Amino acid sequence: MKFNLRKICVLGSLLLLISFAIAWTPGKEDDRNLKVLPKDISSDSLSIIMDEFTEALNVDCAFCHAPKDPQNPRKLNYASDANHLKDVTRTMMRMTYEMNDKYIKSIKQNNIHLVTCYTCHRGNSVPLEK
Ligand code: HEC
Ligand code: HEC
Q1: What distance in angstroms lies between residue 108's CA and the mean position of ligand 1's atoms?
Q2: For residue 50, with 0-12 CB atoms within 10 Å meaning exposed, 13-18 middle and 19 or more buried, which class applies?
Q3: Do the Cβ atoms of 115 and 97 come closer than 8 Å?
Q4: CB-based contact 24:8 (threshold 8 Å)
Q5: What is the pLDDT of residue 130?
Q6: Which of 55, 70, 83, 124 is the most exposed place for a label (fewest CB within 10 A)?
Q7: At a CB cut-off of 8 Å and minimum separation 6, what does 106 contact?
């Protein structure tokens, strides 16, 4: 049940952000390199989504984010697209949102469970085939 609660929070905040383009701006908006999420997303909402990714795939931030300097791999350049898994992830995000918007939400029943990264990945960076 713990995961369900988190899932509801994450999806709730995503839906809010996407449908109403919230007025609050974190300031660093111009430096952002966001192609799927709204550019004016708050840092808090961004962290919730990034935490969801790390948990669903059981990876750390460096799995998708390239280092600022190869000599010091612990400091990451989050806006950089040098790690190609960031673009793979953008495709996964679009796919997941579309599955929910186009198909899951069209199901007429009371307690709809939306698709999340965890639905397929279940703690694996590549989902298991069996
Ligand atoms: C599975 C891949 C993945 C993981 C793991 C991941 N991120 Fe991200 N992150 C992304 C993608 C993709 C974007 C860009 C989203 C977009 O284009 O809308 C992003 C964007 C960001 C940004 C915004 C950068 C900018 O352009 O301003 C920050 C900050 C960030 N991530 C921090 C983190 C942190 C901190 C962690 C670890 C807790 C993390 N990410 C883990 C894929 C990932
Ligand atoms: C409908 C099932 C499904 C959903 C939902 C899904 N994925 Fe995936 N994902 C896959 C499959 C299948 C692959 C493996 C593709 C391949 O063979 O390279 C994959 C691969 C990936 C990879 C590449 C891993 C690697 O090491 O090559 C990343 C990163 C990823 N997914 C992130 C995400 C994130 C983040 C989300 C949520 C926004 C997500 N996925 C949602 C099915 C899914």
Answers
A1: 33
A2: middle
A3: no
A4: no
A5: 82
A6: 70
A7: none
Predicted pLDDT of residue 87: 98
pLDDT in tens, 83-123: 999 999 999 999 999 999 999 999 988 889 999 999 999 99
Structure tokens at 72: 């010091």
Take atom 2 of ligand 1 and give the residue whose Cα is closest: 64
Residues 54-82 have pLDDT tens digits of 999 999 999 999 999 989 888 999 999 99
Residues ≥6 apart with Cβ < 8 Å to 16 = 22
Listed residue (56, 44, 71, 33) closest to 119, CA to CA: 56
State the burial class of residue 1 (Cβ atoms within 10 Å of its Cβ: 0-12, 13-18, 19+). Answer: exposed
pLDDT band at 34 (very low <50, low <70, confident <90, very high): very high
Residue 25, both tokens: 């701006």
